[in-house]
């Protein structure tokens, strides 16, 4: 299904003989969906109790000094930005969607693409990226991980949550009030071993892996940046 006026989806791009699943069209199509669902998304998740995210935040925060500089990459409305600030971290949020960034108006957020973050090399003590790489086409994930490695200082920590599974494709936005078939986001699922291989290649050591199941199976990985790859 294609939104009215939308750029090519994976399906119609394939018909056109282009490789949209590897690039910008997929990300842009998903961003158009977030423009439409931002308020509903923010309302749904800002008050939701999320014990596994709280536990991941505790784990991520523990090795970082008070006031450590952290990026919440793909921060959306900023729920986790606030969660991490409550734990004493200095957190800036980055997200591609203006609508998501303004849904709660959390201060200290910047519109940016995670594939080219507006940060100097080794600028960060920590990087938090929850439920975001699931929108990045599989072929683009190694470059995204290389970007995360670039902006983290040696020994810096990352917490990444991905959707575990197989395949990738467009899915309708599902809300408790009923699925909105007109709004589709592109989802990419990763097998645990394959994703571990990508992390190792990008220069990350896995410190801990956790799994939580809601409407998806979430794989959270606590990582340390171990060496230069550039
Ligand atoms: C499922 S939401 C997660 C938001 C937030 N991390 C949370 O857990 O509530 C995915 C977010 O990723 C953002 N996103 C998707 N692709 C992105 C990209 N290339 N660069 C930056 N943000 C992106 C979307 O705009 C959206 O806000």
Automatic annotation (TrEMBL):
GO BP: any one term: methylation
GO MF term set: S-adenosylmethionine-dependent methyltransferase activity
CDD domains, alphabetized: AdoMet_MTases
UniProt keyword Transport present: no
Entry-linked InterPro entries: Methyltransf_11 (IPR013216), Methyltransf_Superfamily (IPR050508), SAM-dependent_MTases_sf (IPR029063)
Keywords: Methyltransferase, Transferase
Residue intervals of the Methyltransferase type domain: 72-160
Pfam family, one: Methyltransf_11
Protein name as it appears in the record: Class I SAM-dependent methyltransferase
């Amino acid at each position: 299904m294609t939104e009215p006026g939308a750029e090519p989806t994976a399906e119609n791009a394939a018909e056109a003989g282009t490789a949209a699943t590897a690039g910008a069209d997929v990300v842009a199509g998903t961003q158009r969906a977030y423009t439409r669902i931002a308020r509903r998304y923010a309302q749904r998740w800002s008050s939701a109790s999320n014990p596994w995210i709280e536990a991941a935040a505790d784990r991520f925060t523990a090795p970082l000094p008070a006031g450590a500089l952290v990026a919440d990459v793909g921060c959306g409305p900023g729920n986790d930005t606030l969660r991490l600030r409550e734990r004493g971290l200095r957190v800036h949020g980055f997200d591609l969607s203006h609508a998501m960034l303004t849904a709660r108006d959390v201060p200290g957020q910047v519109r940016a693409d995670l594939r080219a973050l507006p940060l100097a090399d080794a600028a960060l003590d920590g990087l938090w990226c929850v439920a975001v790489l699931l929108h990045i086409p599989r072929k683009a994930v190694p470059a995204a991980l290389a970007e995360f490695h670039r902006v983290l200082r040696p020994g810096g920590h990352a917490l990444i949550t991905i959707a575990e599974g197989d395949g990738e494709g467009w899915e309708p936005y599902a809300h408790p009030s009923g699925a909105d078939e007109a709004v589709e986001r592109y989802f990419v699922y990763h097998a645990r071993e394959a994703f571990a291989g990508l992390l190792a290649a990008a220069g990350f050591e896995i410190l801990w892996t956790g799994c939580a199941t809601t409407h998806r199976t979430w794989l959270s990985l606590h990582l340390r940046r171990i060496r230069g790859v550039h």
